[in-house]
Design a protein that fits this description.
globular
């Protein structure tokens, strides 16, 4: 039996990660390109980078014990139980400007980050 929490987010909260509508739209577009509707966006924190911890965002079909699953505009976002404390209140957005394109993570739990912005502490 899986110990999985499923919630639906309508408003930004501080009890987990938040995916903006822009980011959810980009994730949906990527899933449509792949022709898959059975995948979730998994957000994990792993050791690495200059500051000690690194974010990982990838599509996943697995359901692990302790996973927290939230729905954002039809996109399932999954966070494992070890990464969850590091992502409390974090907001994931997608930016597409002339200067920068990609997913960004605004994490109030990160006390510092490296100059390249690839890792945090």
């Amino acid at each position: 039996m899986s110990d999985q929490t499923v919630t639906t987010a309508a408003e930004p909260t501080t009890d987990g990660v938040v995916l903006t509508s822009g980011a959810a739209g980009k994730v949906r577009a990527l899933l449509e390109q792949e022709g898959r509707d059975d995948l979730a966006l998994r957000i994990a924190v792993q050791p690495g980078g200059c500051s000690g911890l690194r974010y990982q965002l990838f599509f996943d079909e697995r359901n692990l014990d302790g996973d927290q699953v939230r729905d954002f505009d039809g996109v399932n976002v999954v966070v494992d139980r070890m990464s969850s404390p590091y992502l409390m209140g974090a907001t994931i957005d997608f930016v597409d400007t002339i200067e920068k394109q990609g997913f960004t993570i605004d994490n109030p739990s990160a006390t510092s980050s490296c100059a390249c912005g690839d890792s945090f502490h």
